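Q: What would this chain look like folded?
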Amino acid sequence: MQYIAHAKKTDPLNGKLTDKDWSDPYKAQAADIYAIFCEINNILFKKPSYKRTSPIPLIPSPENVEAIISSSSKRMATVFRIMSETGIEGFELEIIPRNQIDSQQGIISVVGVKRHDNGTYKLKDSTAEMLRQYLAKHPEEYPFPKVKNTREAWMNSRETTASKLGKPELKKIPLKNLRNYAGAVFYTTMGKDPIQTMHFMRHKKLERTMDYLRGLTQFSANVTYISKVATTAEEAIELLNQGFKEEAIFGEKHLYRKLK
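A: My prediction, written as C-alpha cells:
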C-alpha cells in the first residue's frame, strides 16, 4: 500500500514519472483491485480509505476550443473537430480502422476503452466533408495519428493561439477536455437529457455522467440548426436518413432539424 499511497503520475508524452501523486479516486480504485487480489490469495489486508469524489470536470468554452482548432493544421483540425464533436478520445481514435468509417455518410464506429462502451457517431455535414478530404490524403489502414502525436499537436496549437490572442488561460486546456466539451455541447443542445448524454458519452453508469454534468453551471453552446418541413411519409423518411430529427408537428406539417 506504500506504493499506492506515494505513486506518481507519468507524463503521457514521454512516459517519465512526474512529481504529481495519483488522485485519491485513482488510489481508491487501485486499493479495490489489490483487496480482491488479497482475498483470492488469503492475504490479510485492511483497505485504506480514500476520497472517491472526482474533481469537477473542466469544460472549455466553445470560443476557446474553436480558437485552438482554427490555429491547427488542416490535418489536425480534422482530428480535433471529430474529437470535440463526438467525445472520442485520442487513444480510441488511434485504433479505429478504415472499415469502421463510413466516409460517405460521415459515420464513425468506435471501440470503447478505459471503461467506455462502444459507440457510433454521425458527424455534422461540414465535419464529414473534412473527414473525406482527410481520408483521401491518408490511405493507411489506421488513418488517425498516434495519441502521442495528437497531444503534441494540441499543445503546439494551444500555445500558438494563447500567444497570438494574449489568452494564457488557453494553455490550461488539455486534449482530454475535448471529451468534456463534446458531452457539454450534446447535453445543452439535445434537450438536457442525462440518459441520452450517458449513451453519447458511452458511460456504463449514470453516476459517471452526472459527475461530468457538475461542470456545466457556466457553460453555454451557441449552435446553428438546419430546419426542414415534411408533409408526407416519404419526405419524413428522407429527412431521417439525412440525420434530421422530428421536433414539432403543426397540423399536417412536421418540423425536422439537425445541427449544421
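Residues 2-40 form one domain.
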